[in-house]
Amino acid sequence: MSRFDAEFDAVVVGSGPNGLMAAVTMAEAGRRVLLVEAAGVCGGGLRTEELTLPGFRHDVCATILAMALASPAFRGLDLDVEWAHPPVPAAHPLDGRPAALVHRDPERTAESFGRDAVAWRATVGAAVRAGFPLVDTLLAPLSPPKAPFSAARFGAPALLPLTWLARSAFRTPEARAVLAGMAAHSMLDLRAPLTSGYGMLLAVLAHQVGWPVARGGSQALADALVSRLLRHGGEVVTGHTVRSLDELPPARSILLDLTPRQVVAVAGDRLPAAYRRRLTRFRYGPGVFKMDWALSGPVPWRDPSVASAGTVHLGGTMEEIARSETDVARGRHPERPFVLAVQPGVADPSRAPAGAHVLWAYCHVPNGSDIDMSAAIEAQIERFAPGFRDVVLARHTMGPAALERRNPNLVGGDIGGGSAQAGQFVGRPVYRAHPWATPVDGLYICSASTPPGPSVHGMGGLQAARLALRREERAAARV
Fold first, then answer.
1. Strands of the sheet with 88-94, listed across from one edge
2. In the listed set 156, 182, 209, which residue is the last one of a domain according to the structure?
3. What sign does the dihedral 429-11-25-67 (CA atoms) show?
4. Where are the beta strands (DSSP E) in 315-425?
5. Which residues are CB-contacts of 129 (< 8 A; sequence separation ≥ 6)?
6. Does the predicted model carry a pTM greater than 0.70?
7. Rounded to whole angstroms, how far apart are CA atoms 442 and 296?
8. Domain that holds residue 63
9. Which residue ranges does UniProt annotate as crossing the membrane (predicted)?
10. Rounded Cα distance, 448 and 467, in Å
11. Residue 146, in any domain of the structure
12. Residue 268: phi, psi to the nearest 5?
C-alpha cells in the first residue's frame, strides 16, 4: 500500500474508466500519480465477478464497450485487451414477425428495413460515412468541432425527440423499434429532445466499430489501464474510502471521479457556497433494476437469429417502449418494461463453463426504487424466448440500493452519472466554460457527471487531466 505521506503531483479519487483515464494521462505527462479506490479492486463499472455460480463470470455493470473502441481517449492507447465481436451487434425481437437486426454492415442493415432503407442511409448511414471526426466532435462537445459540417447534418435530426423523428422519417415497425431501443439507452422519456441523437449515435457505433466485449470480462479493460498506470510510475491504493480531501497527500492537482453528491461530501467547506449549492441541485436520472443469470444452455429465442446478437432490446414496438420510458420518467414502474439484455457468450464463451451461458438484463425504474422487477423482466424475456426459465440455473438481482452500495456513484441506481436531459447535456455538473474545473485551484471533477456524460469512453477523465496539465504549465510559466 502506498504511504499517504509520500509526495505526489496528482491524486485521483475513484477508478472508474474516467478516473483511470485521468490517472494514466497525468502519469504519461511525467506526473507522479496516486490513484485511490474505495472498492477492493479498480474498475468502477468495469468490474467482473462470479455473481451466481462458480465459473460463471458476470460484468457487474458495463459489458458492451463500443465507446471504448470509438473514443479518442482510448484509441491511442495500446492496451492489452482482446476484443470479441458478436456476429450481430444488436437484435430487436418483435411479436409475430422476424426480429430486426442491426449488422456491422450499414448497407445490409438498411436493406433489411425495406421501405426505410433510404431513411436509414440518410441518417445513420451518413453519420457512419463521416467517420471518426464526427465521433470525436460528439464526444468533445465543448471543443472546436473536427467535423463541423457532418456535426451540423447529424445534429439536425439528433436534437429531435425520438418519437417525432421515427414517425416522420421512418415507416416500418422494424426501423422505428430499433431506433427506440437504441434511444432508450439514454434513460429519458422518448418524447424528450436529444433522444434521437442518443439512438443514432449508438446505431452509428454498431456499424463503425461494432458492439464488442472484452474477452474474459470488462474487468480486463480496467486491469489494462491499471497496468499502464503502474508502468508509468503511478501508485494505486484500493479498499480506502476517501471521506475528506484532508485525508489526501498534498498535490498540485486532485481529480475526483465522483458525482456531485460525493464531491460535496468530500470537499465540504472548501467549495464556495454558491458553487456547492449548484452541485446540490444536480439532477440524477432513473435507476435500473439488474439481473444476472447462469444458464444451462443458450436462451431459447423464438426467432433463432436473435441467438447471434450480443445485445437484445426487449420491448416490442416503438410505441410500447415509449410508454415504458414515459412511465419511468413520471415516477411509475411499467408493467411491461423495456428490457436491455446482453448475452456475452455469443462473442466470448469463456464467460461460462462449456455449454453453459451467462445473461444479464436490466430495466429502468424511478430513482431509488425499492420495487422488485424480477418477474416483469423475466416475463419480457419469456415473451420472446418461451421456456427461458427452464434453462436458468441461478439468478442474482440488484436493485438501485444494491447497485449504489457497490458503487456510490450510482446514486439511486442511476448508472449514467446524472440525468441526460437537455439542461444537463453540456451543463454537467454546472454551466462553466471548463466544467471539469471547480472554483478551488487544483481541484477537478472527471466523472460521468461531466461532459460528454455516461458510457465507457474515458473522455471526462481525459478532458479534466488535460485541463489540469495546461493550468499547471501556465502556473509554472508565471513563476
1. 97-102, 88-94, 309-314, 339-342, 357-365, 287-295, 392-398
2. 209
3. negative
4. 339-342, 357-365, 392-398
5. none
6. yes
7. 52
8. 10-81+214-283+419-478
9. none
10. 16
11. yes
12. 55, -130
Q: Which three cell numbers stand for residue 12?
A: 485521483
Pull the grid cell for residue 250: 498534498
Decide if 298 is inside a domain: no
The residue assigned the cell 453519420 is: 127
- DSSP for 369-395, please give it: -----HHHHHHHHHHHSTTGGGGEEEE
> For residue 1, what pLDDT is reported?
38
Contact status, residue 245 vs residue 266, Cβ threshold 8 Å: yes
Query: How far apart (Å, rounded) are the C-alpha atoms in residues 479 and 465?
Result: 21
Task: Establish if 364 belongs to a structural domain.
Answer: no
Residue 279: closest CA among 383, 435, 135: 435
Choosing from 209, 224, 247, the residue where a domain stops is 209
Sheet of 10-13, strand order: 235-237, 33-36, 10-13, 253-256, 443-445
pLDDT band at 4 (very low <50, low <70, confident <90, very high): low
439 grid coordinates: 472554483
Burial class (CB within 10 angstroms; exposed 0-12, middle 13-18, buried 19+) of 328: buried
Cβ-in-10-Å burial (0-12, 13-18, 19+) of 143 comes to exposed
What is d(CA 401, CA 71) in angstroms, rounded to the nearest whole number?
A: 31
Is 156 within a domain? yes
The pLDDT tens digits of the residues spanning 380-411 come to 999 999 999 999 999 999 999 999 999 999 99
Say whether both 259 and 185 belong to one domain.
Answer: no
Number of domains in the chain: 2
How is residue 186 written as a grid cell? Answer: 439514454
Whole-angstrom Cα Rg for the chain: 22
Residue type, 177: A
> Whose CA is closest to 429, among 439, 418, 421?
418
The verdict on 127 and 205 lying in the same domain is: yes
**Exposure b/e, 438-465, CB count within 10 A at least 16 = b:** beeebbbbbbbbbbbbbbbbbbbbbbbb
CATH of the domain at 28: 3.50.50.60
Domain co-membership, 225 together with 180 = no
